[in-house]
Design goal:
The chain has 117 residues and is of the alpha/beta class. The protein has one domain: 2-Layer Sandwich (Ribosomal Protein S5, domain 2). Helices cover 36% and strands 23% of the residues. It contains three helices and five strands, in the order βαβββαβα. The chain has helices spanning 10-19, 54-71, 96-109, and strands at residues 4-6, 21-24, 28-34, 41-46, 79-85. A five-stranded mixed beta sheet has the order 1-4-5-3-2, with helices on both faces. Strand 4 (41-46), helix 2 (54-71) and strand 5 (79-85) form a beta-alpha-beta unit. The relative contact order is 0.25.
Length: 117
Amino acid sequence: MKKTKMMKKNYEFRNVLSKGKYYSGKYIEAFVRQHGKQDINYLGIAIGVKLANAVKRNKIKRLIRENYRLYETILKEGNSIIFLWKKKINIEKATFQNIKRDMKEIFDKAKMIEEDR
């Protein structure tokens, strides 16, 4: 069963971005905040409009979503997570392996991976 819902509202993003903890990788950044609902995670992805055209931004979003899907079953529940693409990094470096490495590093720093799985 899918344990994640997408964040869509502006106030949801603002809440996590202002009160969440910041974690950084080489290509992506993450803000993580715990919330009251213990059985679900919320995921948000934001890529700046000035970085690239819509096709490239959507490609990055798909790569982040797919990498998150692979980690979804082993993550602790009850968190809101927002992933951002670093503005200083070239869009051409957005590969599946780069994002996967960064996401693993971020989840390790945030201690979000469940130990018993």
